[in-house]
């Protein structure tokens, strides 16, 4: 049995939401924004490659999202794994330091942003007294499928040889490092199946992780998570873990979000986080995005208020969404007519 979560951690997100008008604005697609700015992500490390080759670009993307109105930014560690760095010839120590570096860059960006706000006196809240809007850093953890670098976080089929223990062993050290690197919470993202959710829940407990986490699943039919496991079963695992302070959906076409919020709300009272992708689909072999039918891009901004009514309270974008998407979301949610 792990350590008890301190009270400050269990109420952490509730307090944050109270100070932010009842909702939080996440950032948008991180890797795909790096790509839009010129980074080449055709690599098994995908966006984590930029921690090596272009940390300045990583910092720029964080700043662009903060400028767009995000108050929760996630680190460039989605596909940063010790195993992935070691495969590139880095030592264990170097690999662990690269994980820490992803959090350091996000902290640096937050410091620069807040310093700028103080200078320009831009960003004081209405209640005033000089208090600035709180900004949280979420350490991103992509699934085992993300590490496989073949897009298999969109299938969740890991085969029979991958067990609960395999997944716990795979993620253990990375979770420990990111939890102690200065982030405010952990974002377990694009979780494709129930087994991996269970592995994360057990790891949080066994390792006595003291920062809170959210669990975010992905779906390609609006009913189940991508592996075919039921969203209710997956969300129930998140609900049962006291370290998990929010549960939701990311990297999923916008048209499925509303129904999935309703399904999640049936099994948990925890805050619901949603950050859909553009609606395009990913080809893991060519590492390219394919246009698909239905609502794409910034069109989904107009649905955000409906998603809030359905019970979600944290909103952002995933792959192929941009700072413009986040600007639109922030504007839609702050609008007085709401
Ligand atoms: C969320 S997917 C677009 C991330 C990239 C994938 N793991 C790959 O390496 O191809
Ligand atoms: N936080 C990651 C999620 C990819 S699905 C990113 O935006 O690149
Ligand atoms: Zn995504």
UniProtKB/TrEMBL annotation:
Gene3D superfamilies, A to Z: Homocysteine-binding-like domain
Origin superkingdom: Eukaryota
GO BP annotations listed: methionine biosynthetic process; methylation; S-methylmethionine cycle
Domain Hcy-binding, residue spans: 12-333
Assigned keywords, A-Z: Metal-binding, Methyltransferase, Transferase, Zinc
Cofactor: Zn(2+)
InterPro entries named among the record's database cross-references: BHMT-like, HCY_dom, HCY_dom_sf, Hcy_S-methyltransferase
Molecular function as annotated in GO: S-adenosylmethionine-homocysteine S-methyltransferase activity; zinc ion binding
List of residues binding Zn(2+): 251, 318-319
Name of this chain's protein: Hcy-binding domain-containing protein
Lineage, highest ranks first: Eukaryota, Viridiplantae, Streptophyta, Embryophyta, Tracheophyta
